[in-house]
Amino acid sequence: MENKEKLRNEVDDNYKWDLSVIYKSNNEWKKDYELAKKEILKINNYKNSFLNSANDFYEFLKYDEKTDRLLNKLYMYSHLNYDSDTTNDVYKKMDNQIIDLFNEYEQLSSFIVPNILKQDYSLFEKFFKDNDKLKEYKFFIDEIYRYKSHTLDTDKEEMISILSRGLSGGSDIFSSLTDSDMKFDDITLEDGKKVNFNESNYTVFITSKNRDIRKQAFTLLLEGYSKYKNTFASCYSNYVDSNIALAKIYNYDSAISSSLFSDNVSEDIYNNLINTVNNNLDVLYKYYDLKKKVLKLDEFHLYDVYANLVDECDKFYSFEEAKKLVLESLSILGDEYNKVLNKAFDERWIDVYHNKGKTSGAYSSGFYDTNPYVLLNYEGKLNDVSTLAHELGHSMHTYFSCKNNPYEYSSYKIFVAEVASTVNELLLSNYLLNNSNNKNEKLNVINHILELFKGTIFRQTMFAEFEALMHKKREEKEILTSTYLTENYYKLVKKYFGPNVVCDDLIKHEWSRIPHFYNDFYVYKYATSLSCACFIVNNILNKKEGALDNYLKFLSLGCSNYPVDELKQAGVDISDSSVILSAINTFSEYLDKFNEVYES
What is the DSSP letter of 151? Predict the structure, then answer.
């Protein structure tokens, strides 16, 4: 008999996050919501006067902060409650109401940056002298001025805004096609039964122990995409053209320089990642050779890549055991860190178990005036323990950033967002390996790390190389036909998988199914974040002088500096290939460790 899904009110309160510390009731929320509707309109009072004097400017910034904090507090309460139970129409309505209010305030406040940039910077130098309290905002103002040469006048900005919907056409068509219109042939199971096959269940079949099922899944998926190769080529080519056109309009040298500008990251860092990985692909080839050996295959095909090296660990970890493992594995991060970590459990920051209507997956979400909450769908598997450590890494980063910065610098950038979470994952894995006597558990831990490194350092870098190449070639007037895209993607696949993997011809269509390609020059951040995390963990475990203190300081920086400079506070120079090499060498060491445990 199947277990019936619990309703939200049937879950023990001890395993639900405590949102009453945000608002004690929905009525309290509604009172603040009504207040917020009035507060956002007050911005019109500042429109023509906020730059009249240093005091006027300071008064406006404090108003804007107060309003933004109120909106965020309202949003946190509504969205966390809604994600707890998406069948609850009350919270669905509240969530939509506050999103609408956010959008309204964004439109009302659209005058701020253009008006600041109309002024000569000397005005703000005078303001800093006239009002000492404004010095706190210097980096904030400097960051706005960094965009001055890439900002259009009001009429042109409005024109671009009007055209924005059309400029996203390629991305929108890709989403509609893949989410709604694409259909695949059925897949045939071992017993001869045919079942529906799609992107959602692809992972189930491509990781199957049955090789025929894996091959079927690989073939069905990519043959499905190949049928629309010209449409996907048009979508992606349109997207690339839009990126290039906007980069020119906004006075950037290239599409990639435009994308990297927001993080103040140089192309050298992007290229350093690709070059360092390219120079060390032999380690990745070593991984595929290991898989071929363990799976006892005469030939290793691309549909064998996701087959599990070992049987899934059948050990059940209660949430209390998971909590104990996380606390013990992260105790190396010191008393202050662990004091806050205990608060996460004791003060119910974590929503643990699944219930009917609860959002799937896991995340950490919090801001300046709330706890950094964690959503889980905990089932007691080893991967769930790792997910707990990972999401708490995000939460600790949020906590320390908020507690050590004024509001305007409290949110860290996406560029460094995965560092703290991955540090926790790696420390947990190290602890489990050193404290387990179970061979299968050890192999599962190592396999998890190997998959993490393979999928993040190598696969994401291959994606980063592909999109950089395609943008560069298009800027050189190359036409991105389906043939050109598939041929160049296939060349990269053969390079990254090496001489001992059979690179099945259908893989050349894989580029067309990668949604990240419609978020330009983003995927490299996954690889740099894991590399940085690995570098930090190795330094902490090796008790390098200052390593722990530097890392804890990094967690407290928020966005008070540029991401690359913040990482240097943690002892990490991401422009140095040694950081990437640290991750690649760790990957190699885990390969050797797997062999050692497997053969024991």
Answer: -
pLDDT band at 230 (very low <50, low <70, confident <90, very high): very high
| Mean pLDDT over the full length of the chain | 95
Q: Which amino acid is at 107?
A: Q
Looking at 391, 418, 465, 510, which residue is catalytic?
391
Q: Report whether 471 contacts 244 (CB < 8 A).
A: yes
Q: How confident is the model at residue 110 (pLDDT cuts 50, 70, 90)?
A: confident
What tokens were used for 42?
């007050």
Helix (H, G, I), strand (E, B) or coil at 348: coil
Q: Which residues have a Cβ under 8 Å from the Cβ of 145 and sit 6 or more positions away?
A: 116, 117, 121
Domains and CATH numbers, the chain: 9-165 (1.20.140.70), 172-182+228-302+438-600 (1.10.1370.20)
Distances (CA, A) of 336 to 85, 343, 481: 34, 11, 56
Mean pLDDT over 341-351 rounds to 98
| Catalytic-residue membership of 566 | no
- Helix residue ranges, H only, 40-110: 54-84, 89-108
Cβ(29)–Cβ(78) below 8 Å: yes
Paired residues of 375 in beta bridges: 351, 363
The SS3 of residue 363 is strand
Task: Tell whether the model's pLDDT for residue 3 goes beyond 70.
Answer: no
Q: How far is CA 446 from CA 324, 390, 450, in A?
A: 20, 16, 6
Residue 29: name the closest of 94, 79, 86, 85 by CA: 94
Rounded Cα gap, residues 565 and 469, in angstroms: 28
Q: Residue 53: how many CA atoms within 13 Å on its side-chain side?
A: 5
| Helix-, strand-, coil-residue percentages of the chain, each rounded to 5 | 70, 5, 30
d(CA 109, CA 115): 11
Give me the count of residues in the chain: 600
Nearest-angstrom CA–CA distance, 336 and 331: 10
Per-residue tokens: 196: 């529906």
Give SS3 for 17: coil
Q: What is the mean pLDDT of residues 110-134?
A: 95
pLDDT of residue 155: 79
**198 dihedral zone (left: phi>0; alpha: psi -120 to 50; beta):** beta
At which residue do the structure tokens 């549909």 appear? 303
